[in-house]
Design goal:
407 residues, transmembrane helix, membrane, transmembrane, 5-stranded antiparallel β-sheet, elongated, alpha+beta
Length: 407
Amino acid sequence: MGVATTVRDATNIERANENETRREMIASWYITMPGIPSSEKEQLEKSLRYNLWASLIRFIVLNFVLTCVWFFGFGLGFDAIKAATGQQLKGTMTVTGVVQEDGLTLSVKDPNKGKHVVYSLTDLGVDPTGWSYGGRLNTYWSKDEDSGDYSIIAVIPEKEASRIQGLEDAILMTGYFSIIVIGLLIFFVRRRKYTSWYIPFYWRMEKFCSENQIYQMYPGYNTEEAFIAYGNEHADTFSRQFAATQLTEMEKKKKKREIVIGAVSALAIMAVIILVICLGTTIQSIADNRKNDDRTVKVLEELQTAIDGGEEPLGEESERYNFANIVSRARESFQDEDVYYKLVTTDDYVALAITTKKKTNVYIDRYTPVEGAVGDLNTIYKLEISMVSNVIQPDDVLNNYTGILYK
């Protein structure tokens, strides 16, 4: 696909360059012919001052400059949350909290203590009406420069914060696309101003060459070459002859209809290509989902066997894990508690997110295979990542856990 796209782009650039060369060749030659109308001469002089590639480079540079001004000027200074709430929250730490079972309290990982702390919604300035277990709010923490301690300065519902952030992104992208659209509009309007004469002029050339059997006089010549060769040999009468050659309204409509049909055909071909790509992507996605489901089922079967004691740990080889070692490590993370786990599998790794009813923390262990593949029997893993999550909340696991490792 990449090679084909590169070849197509190179072909399009070559075709555009060829068209520009032909336009400039005709304009620079025709303007020297005696007897041509002054209006045509003036139009051709303007056309020769226009250069496609210089205009395109100017458009790209100007678009880049305006985009930088928009994003780094307006974008960095614009704060949608401040505009919506009146609070300056840029530069603060954002921690997501989850409403507890009573609907009146919020569990948040306190950055000062490194563990989850329960706050009253009322104390945080949030009306508890309408909140239920699992609801999510963003808490914003400001750091005191002297003590280094964090304190909550604002609480906003996660959906509301996402909506405000989405609004900010929409404003920035609207401005960005407006710069592109306006720039393209100016580019094409300017191009049309200087080059719109060429297509009708070319139609006249074709008709002139056909009516005067010029193609037969100069076999092997294309339209422009035959036109120029005939003009050079009949310079005294050429301008008068060519001025008498005009397209009728029916001929103009036919030419325009051919252009429209060509454009519509190109769009239809593009639509079919996009449809085929989307269909292929959908089919691939269905196949990948089925593959993921099959792999997860196999991993769950092995994990359950280890939980039931049907597999022996690998012993003292600390860098090598089977599912018995994985289960043992998860249990040791929270001793004397029932461990709730959420399983995630891919072709590259197996991950467990674990927590308990005490909601102290969420630990994430990710294992990658060193012998075998994920989903195969007796695969040996190594511990790639082990961390405490600041993003996944205990309630996220407790509300959607895969299983429980009883103490």
